[in-house]
Amino acid sequence: MPRKLKTIEIERISVEEFQQAEKTPLVVVLDNVRSMYNIGSVFRTADAFRIEEVLLCGITATPPSNEIHKTALGAEESVTWKYFNDTMDAVNYLKENGYTLCAIEQCEGSVMLNDFRKENGKKYAVFMGNEVKGVQQSVIDKCDVCIEIPQYGTKHSMNVSVTAGIIMWEMSKQLY
User: Fold this and answer.
1) CA–CA separation, 30 vs 130, rounded Å?
2) Nearest-angstrom CA–CA distance, 101 and 85
3) What are residue 134's DSSP bridge partners?
4) What's the CA dihedral at 164, 169, 170, 174 to 10 degrees?
């Protein structure tokens, strides 16, 4: 049987090395996410996939926060982040910087994640919505595409941090 590695045996880069390392050309935007534990989880996953940046918008809490740190485990210090009071300001910032905007939402005409194909040379930003209301319609209206994760059960949605993890994994695979 394989032996589980001890934490000290797993070679990881330092925060400083992370900040200097090449990043996955992906920005994750949290649109009015309420739970600080979800926010921390997104930071931790963003660290795992070397995501370029996390944008925190509206009521989404920002570091420093004990609740964010509890699930981020310090990733809020390695991952670059910005705060925008209004999500539309983040939309404008990303558009001005040449990003393709993707709402992660169940929409008319949405593209299923397993059918989504990134285009070489493009930078992407993915918008994750509020735990109850999802991504704001005004934000969806400005996005270039809506991407939906196929679901086969009885529920209509998944936890935002789980959704973010699935999206970051799939986008990272395609972007590298």
Assistant:
1) 8
2) 19
3) 130
4) 130
Cα end-to-end distance, the chain, whole Å:
32
Q: Beta strands 145-148 and 111-112: pairing type?
A: parallel
Residue with tokens 């925190």: 56
CB 173 within 8 A of CB 48: no
pLDDT of 77-121, one tens digit each? 999 999 999 999 999 999 999 999 999 999 999 999 999 999 888
Rounded Cα gap, residues 62 and 72, in angstroms: 12
Does the reported pTM lie above 0.85?
A: yes
- Alpha-carbon span 25 to 121, nearest angstrom: 9
| Structure tokens belonging to residue 40 | 């921390």
Are the C-beta atoms of 24 and 51 separated by less than 8 Å? yes
Task: From 165, 161, 160, select the one nearest 49 (Cα to Cα).
Answer: 165
For residue 21, report the phi and psi dihedrals to the nearest 5 degrees. Answer: -70, 155
User: Which two structure tokens, joined as six digits, stand for 156?
Assistant: 């209509």
Q: Hey, what are 153's tokens?
A: 């059960």
Residue type, position 129, single letter:
G
| Residues 57 and 87 sit within 8 Å (Cβ to Cβ) | yes
Residue 104, burial from CB neighbour count under 10 angstroms (0-12, 13-18, 19+): buried
- Tokens 């996939």 belong to 49
